Amino acid sequence: MIGLGIESTAHTFSCAIIEKKNGNGKILSDVRKIYRPAEGEGIHPREASRHHIENSHTVLSDCLSEAKVKITDLDIISYAAGPGLGPCLRVGAVVARSLSSYYKIPIYPVNHAIGHIELGKLLTGATNPLVLLVSGGHTMLLAFLNKQWRVFGETLDITLGQLLDQFGRSIGFASPCGKNIEELANTSSKYVTLPYSVKGNDVSFSGLLSATKSIIKKSKADACFSLQETAFAMISETVERALSFTGKKELMVVGGVAANKRLSEMLKDVCDRHKSKFFVVPLKYAGDCGSQIAWTGILESQVKKGAPLKNTFVTQSWRLDSVKIDY
Ligand code: AMP
Ligand code: MG
């Protein structure tokens, strides 16, 4: 089976092709174009959707030629139907719907967050993990039970990705800023005390964001270092509690912030204490990409027929814990 996946929930427009053979998925191509807002600014949904429209045809044709696949070879087409920014989501949905109706190929709307998890499982080999999903759109701890992902903690306000991006922009980095913050943090080891806020097993980052902005005058590097140490310690505490509560013997980290080495280091320590295996999605597939959508669509196609075109809409706030998983 050969599946095309289209991702366009936020800053990334991506198409990928995955072939499933003998139960295993092989990524044949994964092409991306990323919208970059002006320095100091956040993502503008209309501008991002214009970027996606302008780039969709080259991304799609590069993806097909890299995989050496023709559109008529595709068995299914999947697209990210949410959660995400409405104008951006609609670009991917329109491309998918057009191809599906013209070439008569079954179409699958996919939940973007489930996509991060399924691609993570495919690439790391984790089988029954506690999942930490940390990205621009999510900060969630999840475990699978009775056909659904259940939430064991999440952010009460901004996500970990937003914390890093909003702070990064305030010191002049262009979004997304996580990598720049990590590099600057590596040049310091001076910890400045910042607000640490874990409530139950949920986290809150907005107070930490304001407080970190207030210490940048002294040293931007110390601020980055202290921000990472505090935010990642909060995350580690909730992971540790969830590991002991669920008894899971695997932790898998997915989403764009999974690229951060210091976060992995702290979580690996937690796993060692709990004799749990630590998995992190490979760097190239941590951020948003077509592969996460292509693979989840292929999994869905094992148990479901393609969606009728009239049901191929988008849902901006489609929570992953509302998705029934039958495969
Ligand atoms: P996603 O929404 O999954 O594409 O993830 C994007 C988020 O990942 C943005 O908030 C980035 O700042 C963040 N990110 C990317 N690389 C790193 C890194 N090395 N450290 C921390 N955050 C990162
Ligand atoms: Mg994402």
Radius of gyration: 20 Å
The residue-averaged pLDDT reads 97
Strand order of the largest sheet: 3-2-1-4-5
Instruction: Indicate the structural class.
Output: alpha/beta
Distance between the termini: 16 Å
CATH class designation of the largest domain: Alpha Beta
Low-pLDDT stretches: none
Characterization of the model:
41% of the residues lie in helices and 22% in strands. The protein is an alpha/beta fold. The two termini are 16 Å apart. It is built from nine helices and twelve strands. A hairpin with a 4-residue loop joins strand 6 and strand 7 (139-145). It folds into two domains: 2-116 and 288-322, ATPase, nucleotide binding domain (Nucleotidyltransferase, domain 5), CATH 3.30.420; 127-285, ATPase, nucleotide binding domain (Nucleotidyltransferase, domain 5, 2-Layer Sandwich). Magnesium ion binds at residues 112, 116, 135, 137, 255, 288.
